[in-house]
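Hey, weird one. I pasted the C-type lectin domain-containing protein sequence into the form twice and got a warning about non-standard characters only the second time. First submission, copied straight from the form history:
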Amino acid sequence: MILLLFLFGLTLGAESPSDKHYHRKLQRGNCPMFWFSFNGRVAATHMSWADAELHCVSERANLVSIHSLEEHHFVKDPMKSFDPGPTWIGLSDTQKEGRWMWSDGSAVNFELWGAGQPDDYRGMEDCVHDSYGSDLKWNDDPCSSPTPFVCASRIGCLQQLR
């Protein structure tokens, strides 16, 4: 089970923000405070991509990898209320230009690039955020840009509580 954690002091109610296509309830179950069952955890702190990944790793997680449209919307929906702008995800081509890899090592089996992306503008864009353009798809951006981020952990709530 993957968990969702809000790493900020704001409290989110039991229902996530919705749009015309997606409506879902966050469920805590046996999870600790600010952990929710599904596909990631969310942080409102702005960090570079590398600092965000290091922060996630310190929490026994990685920047989120996204493998479906539903997962993309689930990760983005809670952030809309707190920071509707771009959010780092775990995709980058820092190791080899044009070879996209998830920081958690999972396969890249889903992509949601905005129009004309990725473009490696000025040869300086190697890390990926969501919420690009009016369709809120993915964009490559300089890894040093301070941006909110989403971490994901595969540690179940019952294991976490032990």
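That's the output from the first submission. The warning seems to come from a hidden character in my clipboard, not from the data itself. The chain has one domain: 27-152.
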